[in-house]
Amino acid sequence: MTIKLRKYKKSDLKRHLEIFLMNGIYKKINPKIEKQEKEWLDKAIENYKKEKPGFYVLAITLDGKLIGNCIAEKIDYKGKTAEIGFWIGKDYWNKGYTTKALGLFFKRIKDKLDLKKVHAKHERGNPASGRVLEKDGFTFEEEKGKLIAYSKTLK
Ligand SMILES: CC(C)(COP(=O)(O)OP(=O)(O)OC[C@H]1O[C@@H](n2cnc3c(N)ncnc32)[C@H](O)[C@@H]1OP(=O)(O)O)[C@@H](O)C(=O)NCCC(=O)NCCS
Predict the structure, then answer these.
(1) Structural contact between residues 132 and 100, judged by C-beta atoms closer than 8 angstroms
(2) Probe target for ligand 1 pocket from 57, 66, 94, with the most ligand atoms within 8 Å of CB
């Protein structure tokens, strides 16, 4: 079982939508959702060409199959910080895949985006996310309402 990261491709749309269904985010994919996700995917792909993209996302693959993603958002190029997010399809949870993928993601974004520190937040009701962050070397910062904030200095 090999976890890798790669850039998204236009042909990922169908599988990308399948993961939303798998995780119960949508019950059904209607044309509005499809349009919205296609626009997101197009933007993600366009961003690969930009020197300073607004967000940078890489697909997580398991033996070549798309299973989720890692994303850097709210990128502050002056302050050299960004907010990190991640998700994978439910069928693949609790196998260490996201922890592995996130570790690889830092290697890819550190120089590409010239980051010194990354932040991440998760909801209190989602302890698996906090566990992934801890396993990937994040430090707890604070609780803000329902959210728990972490950060990590990139070396
Ligand atoms: C959160 C998520 C990314 C975790 O991915 P994953 O590939 O299952 O993560 P890993 O297998 O690498 O690690 C999960 C860890 O959480 C632990 N865990 C799982 N459920 C847990 C729970 N209810 N309470 C505490 N720990 C939990 C696992 O035991 C494992 O830790 P361990 O290795 O010490 O045993 C995945 O569940 C997901 O995509 N969720 C939906 C989207 C989301 O919440 N994204 C995060 C927003 S920042």
Answers:
(1) no
(2) 94
* Ligand 1 within 6 A of CB of 127: yes
Gap from CA of 51 to ligand 1 centroid (Å) = 32
The ranges assigned to domains in the chain are 3-153
- Nearest atom of ligand 1 to the alpha carbon of 89: 39
State pLDDT tens for residues 23-54: 999 999 999 999 999 999 999 999 999 999 99
Ligand 1 site, residue 62, Cβ cutoff 6 A: no
Residue 95's Cβ-side half-sphere holds a number of Cα atoms within 13 Å equal to 13
Handedness of CA 76, 77, 81, 85 (dihedral sign): positive
Q: Could you confirm whether domain 3-153 is CATH 3.10.490.10?
A: no
Q: Rounded to two decimals, what is the model's pTM? A: 0.95
* CA 9 to ligand 1 center in whole angstroms: 26
